[in-house]
Write a structure and sequence with these properties.
- It is a single chain.
- The chain is built from 6 helices and no strands.
- The chain has 126 residues and is mainly α.
- It has one domain.
- Helix 1 packs across helix 2, helix 2 runs antiparallel to helix 3 and helix 5 packs antiparallel against helix 6.
- The radius of gyration is 16 Å and the shape is globular.
- The mean pLDDT is 90.
Length: 126
């Protein structure tokens, strides 16, 4: 890895330092900037849980899915600190929703989006 001393292993996948760097550049070196990427992933996860519940079952199921996602202690905890879990949960939910849309529509664009989201998930977890 470029810029890493020989034999040194970074503790997180590359997406976490990149999120911290991006929001640090935009907002400065504060705690809010450090955690903003995870907070955005958490907010996106709640929205995606709603969309999945709504598309698979009903609007009521979507509201329940969003409420449960927003109130699960583990998910609340990982979406407030800069760890790889937050973008992984977001991308996992995004992949499920995009795959559902691809299956339902059969359109090539949705299937290509599945591939891109899957690749981002692999990038996040390596």
């Amino acid at each position: 890895m470029a810029g890493t001393p020989a034999g040194h292993v970074l503790p997180h996948p590359p997406v976490v330092p990149q999120m911290v760097w991006l929001f640090g550049e935009l907002l400065g070196d504060g705690t809010f900037a450090l955690r903003l990427g995870s907070l955005l992933c958490g907010t996106g996860s709640i929205v995606l849980a709603y969309l999945l519940g709504h598309d698979l079952y009903s609007g009521r199921a979507g509201l329940w899915a969003a409420a449960l996602t927003a109130s699960t202690p583990f998910l609340v905890a990982i979406h407030t600190v800069a760890t790889p879990d937050s973008p992984l949960v977001f991308l996992w939910l995004l992949f499920m929703w995009v795959t559902w849309r691809a299956v339902q529509s059969g359109r090539t664009a949705w299937w290509l989006t599945c591939g891109v989201v899957f690749a981002l998930g692999l990038y996040t977890s390596t």
